[in-house]
Amino acid sequence: MAVRGGARLWGLPLVALLLCLVFGLMDPRFASLSNAQNILRQSSILLVVALAQTFVILSGGLDLSIGSVIGVANVLGAMVAVAHGFLPGVLTMLAVGAACGAVNGGLVALFRVSPLIVTLGMLSLARGAALIITDGMTVGGLPKTFVALGWETLGPIPVIAILAAAGFLFGWVLLGRTVAGRYWYHIGGNEEAARLSGVPVRHYKLLAFLMSGALAGLAALLHTARSASGHPLAGVGLELSSIAASVLGGISLRGGEGRPVGVLFGVLIFAILGNGLTLLGFSSYLQLMIMGAIFIAAVWLDLRSQPPA
Amino acid sequence: MARAAPFRVQILPVVLLAMGSVFALMEPRFVSAENLTNVARQLSVLAILACGQLFAIVSGGIDLSPGSIIGLVSVVSTLMIVEHGIAPGIAAGVGMGGLLGVVNGAMVAGLRIPPMIATLGMLYFARGAAFALTGGMPVERVPQAFALLGKGSVGPLPVPAVIAGAVFLASHVVLARLRIGRYILAVGAGEESARLAGIPTRFCKAAAYVLAGFLAGLAGVVLSARMGSGQPAIGEGLEFESIAAAVLGGAKLGGGEGRVLGTVFGVLFLALLGNGLNLVRVSSFTQMLVIGAVLIVAIVADRLRQGWR
C-alpha cells in the first residue's frame, strides 16, 4: 500500500524537463511540433507494455513473456483482420493477449509456481507459436484502417498516442481508484498479510496477469498499426525494456510499491533520450550504452535517497 | 542445502534416457558417434554459461547479462587476436568477462542494487559496447589456429566439450567442496543469518557475479572460436537459456539451493531435446514451442508432486 512519494515523483518530471531543455538548446529541430509527435509515436507502444508489466510487478510477479505474447497476438490478429476485417482483428488481438495472460496467471495462482519460470516458458512457447502460424513470414494486406491508426493525427496529436493514453488511463484508474487496485498493491506488499485479511489472493493474481495480457494485446494493435503488417518477431526484447521503464518509473521489483504516473515518466524519459541522442548523431550502439548506464545510475540514486527499510 | 533435490532433478536422468531411446528409435543417426560429438560441441557454450548462472542464482540473485557479455567478449577477444596474437586475445576475452562480472558484483554487493536491475543495465551496456567497438561489423581475418579451440578435437572429444567438462568439475568443487561455495549457498538461503554467522556476505555475493562473468567470458571465447570470427550480435537470448538450464536442474530462484550435477542434467536435457527434434525434422519454430511447454510442465509437475506428499 505504501505509495512512494517525495523525491521520485518530483525527480522524474524534472529529469524529463531537463532533458528537453538540454536537447532543445543543442538542436533546434528537437523542439519542433513534428519531433514532439515523433516522440509521442515512439513512446506509445512502450507505454502500454510498461503498464502491462506494472500490473504484474505491483502484484508481486514478473512477466518475461510480454514481448512474445505481443508477437502471437499481432500475427493472429493480423490474419483475422485480413480475412474478416478490422474490428474482428482488433478483438482477436485483445483476446489472444488476455488468453495468454490467463494461462500465465492461472499457472502462477493455481500451482504457486515462480512467475519468472512460467513466463520464461511462455516467452519461448508464444514466440514459437507465432513463428509456426506464419511459417516465419510477415502477414501483409491489412485493412487500411490500421495504417490510418498508425500515422493519422487528431489535431496535433497522433492517434496512436491517444490509444496509448486511453490504455494508460484505464490502467491508472484500475490501479489507483478501485478495490482491485488496492488488493493488487496489498498482495504485492505482503501476500500472507493480504490472505489473512481476506483478500482472495489467487483470484487477483490471475486477474493481474489477465489485465497484463489484455494490455499486451493493445500493444500488439499499436504495433500492427505502426508497421502496417503482422510480424511474428514483433515485440522481441520488449519484456526487458518494459521492466526497465517501469523500474525507472519507481515500480519496485519487490512488488506493492510505485505509481502508474511514474511509469509514464519512465517511458517518456527513455523516449526523449532516444530521440534526442539520435538527433545529436549518436549511433544506436552508443545509445544502448548510455541508456544502460543511466538506468543503473537512476535506480541507484533512487535507492540511496530512500530511508533504509 | 541438505534437502533432497526437487522431483524434476531426481527423474531427469530417467527422462533423459527415455527421450534418448525415443529419438534413437525414430532416427538411428541420433546415437551415432558423429551426432553425439556434435551435441557435445553444441552444448558446451550453454554448459559453461549455465554454471555461471547457477552461482548467481544460488547466491540469491540472477544474471541477465551473460548473453551480452558474450557479444562484447567475442569482439574484444578477436580484435586482440588480430592485433596481438591468440594467447593475448583469449586472455583479454576471459579477462573482459571477469571484469564485467566484477562490475556486476560491485553493483549488487557494494551499491546494493537489485541483481535483476544491475544485470539488466549491463545487458544493454555490454551489447551497446560490442556494437560500438566494431561499428556493428563482424571481426574477420581471425587466424585459423584460433578456430581449433572451437572446431578441434582431443582424441574423440571436441575441445569445447573438454573445456565444458572442466568447468563443470571446477564449478562442482567450488560450490560443493570449497568454503566459498558453501558461503555463497548460505548467503542465498538467508543473507541476514549468514551475516550473523560471520560470513562475509558482500564478498560472497560479489564473488558469485565475478564467477558468472568470468565463465561468460570463457563461453564468449569458445563461441567465437567455433564461429571463427568476432560477432557483436551473438549470445542474444542465452541469458534466458542459461536460466532455464539451471532451474530445470533444480536451482531454486531466490537462492540457497542448487547443484552442478543438476545443472549438467538441465543442459543435457535442453541440448538433446533440441538435437533430437532437429534430427526428426521438427522445425526450429516448433522446438521453441516444445521447450517452452517443457519448462512449464516441469515446474508444475514439481509443485504437484510436493502437494501430494
Note down, in words, how this protein is organized.
- The complex is a heterodimer of chains A (309) and B (309).
- Helix content of chain A is 76%, strand content 1%.
- Chain A contains 13 helices and two strands; from the N terminus they run H-H-H-H-H-H-E-E-H-H-H-H-H-H-H.
- Chain A has helices at residues 7-26, 33-58, 66-84, 86-111, 115-134, 144-151, 159-177, 179-189, 191-196, 201-227, 238-248, 260-279, 284-305; strands spanning 153-154, 157-158.
- A two-stranded antiparallel sheet of chain A has the order 1-2.
- In chain A, strand 1 (153-154) and strand 2 (157-158) form a beta hairpin.
- Chain B has 309 residues and is mainly alpha-helical.
- Chain B has one domain (7-308): ABC transporter involved in vitamin B12 uptake, BtuC.
- Chain B is 77% helix and 1% strand.
- Chain B has helices at residues 7-26, 33-58, 66-84, 86-110, 115-134, 144-151, 159-177, 179-189, 191-196, 201-227, 238-248, 260-279, 284-308, and strands spanning 153-154, 157-158.
- In chain B, a hairpin with a 2-residue loop joins strand 1 (153-154) and strand 2 (157-158).
- Chain A binds chain B through residues 64, 107, 111-114, 116-118, 120-129, 131-132, 135-136, 240, 243-244, 247, 253, 283-293, 295-296, 299-300, 303, and chain B through 64, 107, 111-114, 116-118, 120-129, 131-132, 135-136, 240, 243-244, 247, 253, 283, 285-296, 299-300, 302-304.
The number of helical runs of chain A is 13
Biggest sheet: strand arrangement of chain A: 1-2
Quote the CATH topology of chain A. Answer: ABC transporter involved in vitamin B12 uptake, BtuC
Number of helical segments of chain B?
13
Strand content of chain A: under 5%
> How does the helix and strand content of chain A classify structurally?
mainly alpha
Strand proportion of chain B: under 5%
Element pattern of chain A in H and E: HHHHHHEEHHHHHHH
CATH top level class name of chain B: Mainly Alpha
Helical/strand content category of chain B: mainly alpha
> Can you give the mean pLDDT of chain A?
92
H and E order of chain B: HHHHHHEEHHHHHHH
Query: Judging by the overall fold, what is the CATH architecture of chain B?
Result: Orthogonal Bundle
By DSSP, the count of extended strands of chain B is 2
Largest interface: A-B, 44 and 46 residues
Helicity of chain B, as a percent range: over 70%
Cα-atom radius of gyration of chain A: 19 Å
Spans of at least 5 consecutive residues with low confidence of chain B = none
Largest sheet of chain A: 2 strands, antiparallel
What integer value in Å does the Rg of chain B equal? Answer: 19 Å
Q: What is the domain total for the residues of chain B? A: 1
